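Below is how a single chain appears once it has passed through the pipeline. First comes the sequence as given, then the structure the pipeline wrote out for it. We keep one example in the README because the format questions we get most often are answered faster by looking than by reading.
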Amino acid sequence: MLWCRSSSFVRTRALRCGGGRGGGRFARIFPTLGRARSPLRALPRGFTLVEILVVIAIIAILAALLLPVLSLGKAKGKRVGCLNNLRQFALSTQMYNADNDGKLVENLPLDAGAQATNSWVRGNMKVAADATNQALLRQGKLFPYASQVATYRCPADASQSAGVPRVRSYSMNSWMGSRYMEREPGGYQGSYYRTFVRESEIAVAGPATLWTIGDEHEATIDDAWFWVTMDDSRPFASFPATRHDHGYALNFADGHVETYKMRDPNSQPPGGFGVQINKMNSDWLRLKSVTTIR
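Resulting structure:
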C-alpha cells in the first residue's frame, strides 16, 4: 500500500480508486477521509428559555397541588396525637378509680379555694407563672397515672404565655369529680341534673354517653374545670377548642374518644366576630347532651 504524507493525496487516491477493489478497502480503513467536519457537531445542546419556563411552570403547578395535601396530613397527625392524649387520660382515670375504691379523681374550680389543690391537675392558664409551670402538672392527683408532661398539651395548641408554650390544653367536665355543680341553678336544687363522684353513679347513667376530659379553647382555658351551664345561663362559658378542622375532641367515661365538629355558624369563641351564642345553638345542645343527665 502506498503511503503519502499529504492527506490531500490520500483523499485523492481514495476517490480515484473508489470504484475498485483497492479503493473500497481504503475507504473502509479511513471512513472519515474526504468528509468535512462541522466544528459545532461535538458541542452539547442547551435548554431554550421557553423550555426552562415550561419546567418552572410545571414545578409550580405540582407544588400548588401537593402543599395542601402535605398540610392536611400534618393537621391529621396532630389530631391523632390529641386523640391519643385523651385515650391516655381515659385509661389514667380508670386506673385512679380502681386504686381509690371506685371514687373519681377530684375536679374543682379555682374558686373552690383550698379544696382545689386536690384537683386532678393544678394551674391556671390565664396566669403566666402557672401557664408554663410543669411542676403544677406533677402535683395533680392524676399525674402518677398520666406521667408524661406532653400528654397534657394538644399537639395543635399554638397558645403561648410570654413566648413560651402553655403546658395544658385540656379540662374536665364540671359535672364530674365533685358535687360543686349542685349549687348551680341547674344542679340538684334546680332542675335536678346529676353530678358524679363515683364509678357506680356513672355506670347507672351510662359511661359511653358521658364525656370526662376535653380539648378547651385557648381563649377560655384557665383552671382544669370545663364549665357547662345546663340551665343555659351561659352557653359555652368554657369554649371547646377549634384546632382540629373547626372541631374538638372528648374522651368518655367508658374509655372511647370522639371528635365533634362545630357546625353552627354562630359557634364562635370569645372575641370572634362578637356573635352571641344562644341556648338553641346546635353545637351547645350537642355538648350538653353528653355532659350529664337528670
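Confidence is low (pLDDT under 50) at residues 1-21.

See the next section for the split statistics.
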